[in-house]
């Protein structure tokens, strides 16, 4: 079904957690990461959409990274959630241990709001041990984001041979009284006065748009075996933070219950809190965004003799060559966002007919002072004329065209956004 203007679409935010994952590491626990794949009904292939962060030494991870996905009511959107044990820094997953997967539709998740399932092997029939996954869905109705940064002072020392390795977790209180992980900072090793890196979290994830919603900060001491120790916690709201509350005492409930003289386990200080709107591409379009489309075509000899059917520049009367296919496909999308429909079209890596010199920045219409073509059809016509006249050469040097576009962009910016003295 066509995704037209009338399509029923909304953006959904997915929060993922797992329990009882397989342990594939010998001396420690698995380091899980979740990959989301979307099934393409046309090609019948699965395509990766997003990944969560990797959680070290944890068989029951709460992934703090949320996944946003467009939900189309009128479509069956098949999803596959795959869990891997990540033991290296490469993007490729073929050398990582498979921990289990589950297939479902986005409609199933949205209709249930919280989707629970066991994890299965790659055949989708046999269970992957006792592993299970929970996927919580929320409609994204608030597009604001919060930039925060924290540091702490005088945290409790939890390690015997060194100082604590602290990190912060931020949890949102749900309407049913449960808690959902909104963000997790990095670990600062061996430091009782840590300074965590600034981070960005959506208002949706932090409090579902309700600035008075309670949020919980938990400060833990990271341990390599996954048995992290609680340093302390405190409760606040985004509203309270914005109104000026900057210092919070970390309270360890167990220590407080045991010692009447107990005060706190350190202080967490808010260094920055900035709430701002996260603009979407459509916001910019509605605001009058114009895209300036410039074409750069490779005419180096590696493309093959244009007279040969094996060449990327071969003009087949029945089928457009690959350059023409790319021009037509990209141009059909971009042309709607350029009001004058005048596009600079350049080539590089060819020997030109007028002077028999190799050029890495020439106009396809051979008019250096006016390289603009009228619409996509104009570019196609100029390209066809150029192929019939130039001689493919080399080497491959695209930097002059990149610099050409950069100069054009700088000039356009200076004309539309003048500097204020």
Automatic annotation (TrEMBL):
CDD domains given in the database record: C2A_Copine, C2B_Copine
UniProt domain C2: residue ranges: 1-119, 127-251
Pfam families: C2, Copine
InterPro entries linked to this entry: C2_dom (IPR000008), C2_domain_sf (IPR035892), C2B_Copine (IPR037768), Copine (IPR045052), Copine_C (IPR010734), vWFA_dom_sf (IPR036465)
Database matches in SUPFAM superfamilies: C2 domain (Calcium/lipid-binding domain, CaLB), vWA-like
Highest taxon listed in the record's lineage: Eukaryota
Similarity comment: family membership: Belongs to the copine family.
Name of the protein: C2 domain-containing protein
Lineage, broadest ranks: Eukaryota, Metazoa, Chordata, Tunicata, Ascidiacea
